[in-house]
Design goal:
Layout: E1 22-27, E2 30-35, E3 47-53, E4 58-63, E5 69-75, E6 78-84, E7 89-95, E8 100-103, E9 109-113, E10 118-124, E11 132-133, H1 134-140, H2 143-150, H3 154-161, E12 170-171
Antiparallel strand pairs: 1-2, 2-3, 3-10, 4-9, 4-11, 4-12, 5-8, 5-10, 6-7, 6-9
């Protein structure tokens, strides 16, 4: 129970409509709604996001500095990918309706929808979910620092990152012209990685030589 709430007050809140607080909307099929203590004052150490995605849309790489994230698949299918900082592994966890994937606090991760009409709930053990977005890291870190630190060509960095003008949240951005539809939003090498999942005898997954959960190989023409 939230000990800071006056449960006798007429302002006490017990219900909320998430459609009243859309955090981000890319289009009609891709959106994020938020519920935190700012919307429902009887919440204690819990909050959630309601996420809707169509095929190949990505919740961009990010981490939550204040909470663990539990991803629950309501409908559709996604692959939750994360970097385990203790083993330096990039791991992929395909989940379908009724399944969950857990992302520990502070772990770098992203989520890719593998079918249309995907619906997720992501639950956090914090009253307000906080996050650091990959798009913010890329656009706010000076290009000369990136070039000097990693021994890269500064002009190429500036050219590559110049389209990122604001937080992305759900990618690719609506105005992205670089990626053909049949090879959606995969910018990293995944062909040499494998999907990981806990054994579930009643379900099975299809693994491909490309990205886990997709029925195509994004590295072939």
């Amino acid at each position: 129970m939230n000990s800071y709430v006056d449960y006798t007050s007429p302002s006490v809140q017990f219900t909320y409509d998430l459609s009243d607080n859309i955090l981000f909307q890319k289009d009609a099929q891709n959106s994020i709604s938020e519920l935190s203590i700012q919307q429902l004052n009887t919440l204690a150490n819990v909050s959630l996001l309601e996420i809707r995605l169509s095929t190949a849309n990505v919740i961009e790489p990010h981490y939550h500095q204040n909470a663990t994230e539990l991803v629950y698949c309501v409908t559709g299918a996604v692959t939750v990918s994360l970097i385990n900082p203790f083993t330096s592994e990039l791991r992929h966890f395909p989940i379908t309706p009724g399944q969950v994937a857990n992302v520990p606090q502070g772990w770098w991760h992203y989520i890719v929808a593998t079918v249309d009409n995907t619906h997720l709930l992501t639950i956090f053990n914090a009253p307000i979910p906080e996050f650091i977005l990959g798009s913010d890291v890329l656009r706010l870190t000076p290009s000369n620092i990136l070039a000097h630190t990693y021994c890269l060509n500064e002009n190429k960095i500036q050219d590559a990152l110049s389209p990122i003008k604001k937080p992305v949240l759900i990618g690719p951005p609506k105005d992205c012209k670089q990626q053909p539809l049949q090879k959606p939003g995969i910018h990293v090498r995944l062909a040499d990685t494998v999907a990981h999942h806990q054994p579930t005898p009643e379900r099975s997954y299809v693994y491909t030589s490309g990205y886990p959960g997709f029925s195509f190989n994004p590295y072939q023409n």
